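Record type: monomer structure entry
Structure origin: computed from sequence
Chain ID: A
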Amino acid sequence: MVLERSSHQLPTRRISAGSSGSLFCLFCVSIFLLAIVSLGDSAAAADLSETSQFFRGGKYAECIAACEKAIAENDFSENYRLLKIRSEMELGRYEAALKSFDEALARFPYSLQLRWLGREVCQFNRQPERAARLDVEITQMIQQAPWRYSDAVNQIVVGRFYLSQGIDPKKVLDTVYNVVKKRQPTYVETFLASGELALEKNDFALAAEAFQQAIKLDVGDPAAHYGLARAFAPSDSEKAEAALKAALKWNPQHVPSLLLVAEEQIEAERYDEAEQTLTQVTKINPHQPRALAYRAVIAHLKNQAESEKFNRLAALRHWPTNPEVDHLIGRKLSQKYRFVEGEKYQRQALAMSENYLPAKMQLAQDLLRLGHEEEGWKLADEAFTADGYNVVAHNLVTLQESIAKFRTLEADGFILRMDAREAEIYGHRVLALLQRARRELCPKYDVELMQPVIVELFPRQQDFAIRTFGLPGGAGFLGVCFGTVITANSPASQTSSPTCWEATLYHEFCHVVTLNKTNNKMPRWLSEGISVYEECQADKTWGQTMNPKYREMLLSDEFVPISKLSGAFLNPKSPLHLQFAYFESSLAVEFLIQKYGLDTLKRILVDLGAGMPINESLARYAGLLESLDADFAAYARKQATALAPEADWSAPELPRRATSTMISAWLADHPNNYAGLARLARQLMNESKWDDVKATITHMRKLYPHDDTTNGALSLLAEVHRELNDAGAERQTLEELATLSDDDVDLFARLIELATKTEDWSAVKKHAARWLAVNPLTAAPHRAAATAAEVLHDDPLAIESYQAQLLLQPFDPAEIHLQLSTTLQRSGNLPVAKRHALLALEETPRFRAAHERLLAIVRQMEQNASKEAESK
């Protein structure tokens, strides 16, 4: 929720008396009274505090018994009745809660808290009409006697009620919750309510602040720790886990926290563990709707249709029109890329409650990910109109305006949308790459795509994140595939560490193939593993390969067996661990193909498409899962030990400013220490001891010949050759290094420079293309490509390169217009050639060569016209 800050600041919404009627007027009266009435509450009696601790600690039955005893002894406090009803609801004793509610309401007919709690009680007892009447009664009671409800406790109830009725959230925050905070700054419930509001609006930073303050005031409140866990979940998994543990420490039976644990286990595909957690919940409340909904999700993912249906109906047994049930099931299925099924559940939720905004917002995102854009954008706009403080809705509506300005290119079943200027520069390259991927991958996996594939490239990373996730973030993602929709960052969004966009799009299209083959029913590790594997098959410089860090992780406790690989993608410890998950998944696919064959892998994909769980399918072809895990572990460790087997990878124990003599002395006892050798090579270069440097680098290459890092043997050797002005040797070394990298633009630029000097135009053309595969938005590779194309008589490439240079605001556009005009004339496109000659003269009116070119083109056009007339 963005109420006051953030780069996505939302407009202030106004609600007039005419738009909200008497409720808004009542809201204003309540605020006035709150400002003038003291908020001080008397301290709770010791016995009430003790009874409350039963509830806070999850001892709900004991709390009910204590409340019954207290009510029998002292019937002047509604707090015991409220605690009793809440405890009965926690235990799923809905009929008992209704009876308690009726008795309490008869005893305390003016209680606002009872009516607010009673709304839920009535819903779970199939009394929706009565729940609606309670809303009316609450409104009337505040209107008729607002002074009665001006204390802190009731004001928080009033604030929550106003939010449920659609009152402006910012007004509630500023004029109810914040006012209570000022008047009674130690009242914890105010911070809990503020945090809940922020979570609802997806303002996780503001929510974290609220819940942290609540914990400072009351460290033993499990609700505060649970709220903090939810606030940190999208950004800091360690803090979220710590907060969740704290919540369960204070209340081992805190149902919301247990459900959050189950949700994480489902996300990690640890379904058996999730079932155990859900069993804990159902022991507390056998009718808990969210627990039953999660069980329906697990049943769906295990292809157990009857169990899915049974659990869904059980979740709706006591509240048949509860939209949260279908919304939750659909949301979790969408997170598993089951967007079609997710869409169905969101529509069911909206059929129960047409204004249930969470379902409407999720349905909008599902439809956009399925390519049903017209309805998806319409629903996002409706959600934003209904709730202007919903960050996801606001971001999507704003993004739609940006996408509307994109250029659309279509070819061979692809709909490509990208920035208009970028589309002119390299849009044809994107389409060519996608068409290549389709030719290579669809036949290989026996897939026929029945609908167009939508590809969207975003020049701003923030827009990519919003289109993909609904919120800014996702900085580690280059692209995402939803099935037949691909979203990706364009080269314009790349920072100082660019990546090969061709490899990214090839990877994502592979997802299109495998997700369509399996109907989006595949574990993440297998999906990512196949895509990375196929990258490497398409181009040996793409994908991921073994390196010393991965070697160390494979040989340590960081290794993850196949049966747990999907969990490696959930809350990785670091960006390195996430990249390792991709690498290890590709290694697992390589292992499966080498041992069982590609046809077996395709049969596994068919099984998944039919709904078979991955472990069952693997067992059909590989036997016991334990044996498969053991075989893969042996394979992975064999691959790891094969990398530089004689190298010592320990950190050298050397002074910071060690001389080459000191380093050499240390290496005498550690001759194969790779980092030490690299340190020695660098120091020898500083000391200009070139013969010694070459000997050291030769030893490094023997230990680890395929090191592509800046301090690796090849990079160091290229530097040495350059220092010694041996251009031929430098180029040979750099060519070898180029076979190991797909995104080193400095390397490609240097190779172009060296190849140009020797007039090796084929090499210039090759390396210019590789540079363009990383960054086509800089002029240098286009200039190099144009120069090579002219010599190689490749007019199409020359025309393309000149056109790109003109779009990149060149220093001398007149010269480029002339060159383009000349090439177009040579290729026979005289009208366009004439136009560019005129554009050259427009830039530089006295440009003699352009005048001559224009005259030559006009004469040729006249000659062609004359010949055409004669032929008639």
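Annotation 1: Residues 1-21, 29-45 have pLDDT under 50 and may be disordered.
Annotation 2: The CA atoms of residues 308 and 698 lie 63 Å apart.
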